[in-house]
Structure formats: C-alpha cells, structure tokens
Input
Amino acid sequence: MFDCHTHSTYSPDSIAKIEDACNTAIKNNLSGIILTDHYEIDLIGSSYIFNPDFAKRKQDIENIEHKFKNKLKILEGVEIGFQPHIKDDLIKIIQKNNFDFVIASIHSVQKEFISNGKYYENKTNQEIYSNYLQEIYKSVTEFNDFDVVGHIGYVRRYGNLTDRNMNFKDYPEIINAILKEVIKKNKGIEINSSGYRDILQTPIPNYDIVTEYKKLGGEIITLGSDSHSHETIGHSFEIVKNRLKDLGFKYIAHFEKREPKFTKII
Ligand SMILES: [Zn+2]
Ligand SMILES: [Zn+2]
Output
C-alpha cells in the first residue's frame, strides 16, 4: 500500500521530515508514500503561507532517494486548496511541477479558512454542511486538473457542531451529484484515515458515502493518512483496508505521473 496523503516540512503546518516519513513508511510495511504538501492561496483567517518551493522539495527527494532504493517509492504530489476564482493559478502550478498526484481539497468557503472556526458562526449544521458540499461540487464540475477529491467531510472536524456525521442520507442529492461527476471524469476519491486520530473515529469520508460511491460504480480510491508528523504515516490503514474489502472494493489505487496504479486488496 501507498500512503497517498502526507505533509512534509514543505507544508508550514507539518513537522514531518521527509526522511523520517520514509523510515516510518518502511516500518509500517508501505510500498511508497506521496508527499502532498499544501498549495493554498487567497485565504481569510490563515496565518500560514501555503506555497511550497516544489523544486527544492524535488531536490531533497533526489538527495535521499538512494537510501530507499528498492525499499520505498517516494512520489511527488500536491494537495491544492480549490477555490473557483483561483482556478487558473492552480492549473499553472500543476503544469509547472509535473506532479505524480493531485488531491483537490476544500479547506475554505468563500475564502474563509474552515479550520479557524469562524466559518461555523451563526450557521445551522445544515448550512455548514450544505455550503461546504456545494464548494466540493464546484471543484469537481468547474475543475479538471486533479486525480482525487480530498477528504469529503473535512468540515466535520472543526467548530462547535452538534452533529459531526454529515450522513449521506441527510445530503443525498448533492453528495450523489459529486460522486457521479467524479466517476464520469474518471477521477477518484480519497479515504482519509486522519479521522481515526481525532474525535471523529471514522475515515473521511465516512463509510456510508464510500458505499454510495461503490454503488454508483466508483472504483478509484486512494488511502491517505494526512500526516503532519512522521509518526502517523499509514495510520489505521489495516482497519480501513478491511472495511473497504467488506464493501466490495477489489483494488486500492495510488498515482504515478498522474496515472492510477491498482493494487489488489488481500
Ligand atoms: Zn486537507
Ligand atoms: Zn492534507
């Protein structure tokens, strides 16, 4: 298995050194990792600047690659924070850097950075989830240059929510529309295991959404820990893998040079 969602010190909110991340990946029997540092611009409410020097990161990888030869593949990716008005800039960054893998994530709604909590103020749960899902819908309909949709349900984690489930049955139309578009475009969704490390205790998206994706004919799924420190690389992958198998998935994917590579689930 590959951990397809990891942040190195090239993300300002991560403390994971690339070499440490690689060593943990080997310890956890992974075949590879994809570094998906954040690229994110024009946000309100974030003190970070998410604009990594990807050329320097490439150099860093090349400098340590010999240590992991035949043991671990180290691939270069990005997690873009999609916003409709920065689409052209995103396309340019992606074209310039020849990534193996692009995750399209929603971390903001109308520029407001979700994780700082303000987004939740004076809204019902219904509004919080619906507005967020609308942004994902825009990302999959208005944008093409991505491989998987990141953590559908990220918004469940923050704020003062009374219900952190974002159940499929409560938002069936919009979630169905998102999943159908993903499948139509031959893209995939990621199963983000970071929820097992916090209050959610489920992956993001939760299994009810993954079940619908399968029902609609979705095949491309990647697994990611969303690690911001090296210790959590590959976290809870066994639990998630077994559940995916139970749901009828035969393969887990990772991407190289923007092409999906499938590994049979055993
Ligand atoms: Zn994210
Ligand atoms: Zn991430």
Observations:
- The first strand starts at residue 2 and ends at 6.
- The chain has one domain: 2-264.
- The helical segments are 18-27, 54-64, 87-97, 125-142, 172-184, 207-215, 237-246.
